[in-house]
Design goal:
The structure is a single chain. By secondary structure, the protein is mainly alpha-helical. The chain contains two helices and no strands. Helix 1 runs antiparallel to helix 2. The longest helix is centred in the last third of the chain and has 30 residues. The chain is flat and about 45 Å long.
Length: 61
């Protein structure tokens, strides 16, 4: 079986995607609400990821 190697950025995107799916399915009742909430959660994860990446870059030099 081939080994799967992901960069930290790719693993973070995959984590955000999977968690967004779970949060959408678990917290909302209709399919439309689930989709909207899942997309919203994924966008929030990505915004946080990019914001923290910039903060670390600025802090590290």
């Amino acid at each position: 079986m081939p080994k799967l190697t992901l960069s930290h950025f790719e693993a973070s995107i995959l984590f955000g995607f999977l968690i967004s799916i779970v949060l959408g399915v678990v917290t909302k009742k209709t399919d439309k609400d689930r989709l909207h909430y899942g997309v919203y959660c994924f966008a929030c994860f990505m915004a946080t990821l990019l914001g923290l990446a910039w903060l670390m870059k600025l802090g590290h030099g």
